[in-house]
Amino acid sequence: MTKTPTGEIIKVPTDYWDKLKKRNVNKLCNLSLAHVYPPEGLLLHFLNKDILLDMENRSIHRLNVNKREKIENPFLELIMLVYLLNVSSDNPNQDIISVRDLKNAQFFQGPHELQTALLLDLYGNNLEGFKSAAESLGGKSLDMADAAYMLLPFPKIPLYYLLWGGDDEFEPNLSILFDRSIEKHLAADAIWGLVNLVSNYLLSGG
User: Fold this and answer.
1) Mind listing the pLDDT tens digit for each residue in 175-190?
2) Is-cis flag, bond preceding 39, omega within 30?
3) What's the whole-number average pLDDT of the chain?
4) Structural domains present in the chain
5) Using the 8-state DSSP alphabet, how is residue 9 labeled?
6) Which end of the chain has less Cβ packing within 10 Å, N or C?
7) In what order do the strands lie in the sheet containing 68-70?
């Protein structure tokens, strides 16, 4: 049973698959930068993997050389569907902002504050471990902080993880930044969910 960080059980609404199936597949691919994968459905790049969305069987799969492997991850399935159903024509514009600059910044408070504590516990004094995890997820190194990476969970949605390591004087610190265009594609709760999902992959070492 998969839960959100606030303890809610994650269930994928069946009508999300219904809505996706009704979309014009060519227009959807142009918007989302997914690819048609006949006859099953769509291929969408997530971090370092191409994920197959099988619209007939309402399931997601990892593609290997000679076979496909079903992914039992309702969190990932839900976020992928939300992206595909809401993606707009806007592209990233390299206007990098913090959570406080989002139009719905007030959402990211209390139980919806971006969770960085576990990442800091794991990587605050282990920059090389952070670098290895980020690079294994396809992260692009940035000349920022002590270690920083742009991760691309979806083709139009970069996330920026900036880590400052701890020392004798300062505690380690982690910031998660966004391209301003993210709010053109995802509502606040979906942004929060996506960040938690990507952070979970970082915590698992990629």
Assistant:
1) 999 999 999 999 999 9
2) yes
3) 92
4) 14-86 (no CATH), 96-203 (3.30.310)
5) B
6) N
7) 35-37, 41-46, 49-54, 59-63, 68-70
